[in-house]
Amino acid sequence: MTEVHCNVCASPLGDPVYESARSLTSLCDVFPEATRVRVCEKCGHLQTDEIDDAEGYYDEDYTILVNSEVEDQGYEVLDGKPCYRTAHQVATLLGKLDISRGARLLDYGCAKSSTVRALIQERTDIKPCLYDVSDRYVPFWEKFLKPGSWATYELPGEWAGSFDIVTSFFSLEHMTRPMQSMQQIFDLLAPGGVVYGIVPNVFTNIADFLVIDHVNHFTRGSLEYLLCSAGLTVHEIDDTAHRGAFVFVAGKPKSGTVEKNVDVAVIAEDLARIGEIAAFWRTAADRVHVF
């Protein structure tokens, strides 16, 4: 059997802590491959074995919120009125970042990019660009951006070092090579620029543990390890601003390098909590049968 390595720190991973012959995707589709979840003892990362032909899956099969321009996901109900995920993400971003006038922004792994579309309605001075590994979303992009403002599959060389902000909304969990992607983001940022992202938090949304196309289930420790290893300075990892998720902000230093530290105590705590979640899901079917 081929040895599996951690997507964050490249350490070899052991046997799965959870395995299931039946699998579900993040779009709630049944998937014909086994789910195998492993844990990294070094950085605390939780990782699901990647599906066969992941690139083809995201290019041709993965379609999120493509039924209409305005299709969205509910986030919460306040005073009897629904609040949708896009609006919440825009409000959270604007609350955390002091975006300079005329800032150049790239939405990396953007899919339909409804968040950036809503953002530039509030901040018309922002200069957005989009990137994804599929061209199926181009018809949505054409309706609010000019040609030349987006790229698919390959990143244009002239984009290097040109962005003040790179955003990533619920995309890193899908990436089979997140370290490579974060290094690309580092190269895309201008000195002093920031990356702003959101990823699921498996500790507050334990169903994420079972999602086969979420190859990465970041812990606080593994997310910090990823960002620092890419050369970024971690400004914030917030587990309360978005329900069931980590919101992170990290910056590209104007000079010098970032020291990578591993907080052993944090990782030990993460590993203990992962063990509890794995045990919960391993026995879930038995508890249902008993009931």
Task: Report on this structure.
This protein is 27% helix and 25% strand. It has 291 residues and is α/β, with parallel strands linked by helices. Strands 10-9-8-11-12-15-14 form a seven-stranded mixed beta sheet, sandwiched between helices. A four-stranded antiparallel beta sheet has the order 1-4-5-13. Helix 4 links the parallel strand 9 (127-132) and strand 10. Helix 2 crosses helix 3. The protein is globular. The model has no long low-confidence stretch (mean pLDDT 89).
User: How much β-strand is present in the residues?
Assistant: 15-25%
Q: How are helices and strands ordered from N to C? A: EEEEEHEEHEHEHEEHEEHEEHH
| Average pLDDT figure | 89
Helix content: 25-40%
The total strand number stands at 15
Low-confidence stretches: none
Question: What's the end-to-end separation, in Å?
Answer: 37 Å
| Number of contiguous helices | 8
Strand order of the largest sheet: 10-9-8-11-12-15-14
Largest sheet, in brief, is: 7 strands, mixed
Structural class: alpha/beta
Rg calculated over all Cα atoms: 19 Å
| Shape designation | globular
Give the helices and strands, then pairings.
Elements: E1 18-20, E2 23-24, E3 30-31, E4 35-39, E5 46-48, H1 54-61, E6 74-78, E7 81-84, H2 85-96, E8 104-108, H3 114-122, E9 127-132, H4 138-141, E10 150-152, E11 163-169, H5 178-188, E12 189-200, E13 216-217, H6 220-229, E14 233-238, E15 245-251, H7 264-282, H8 284-290
Helix pairs in contact: 2-3
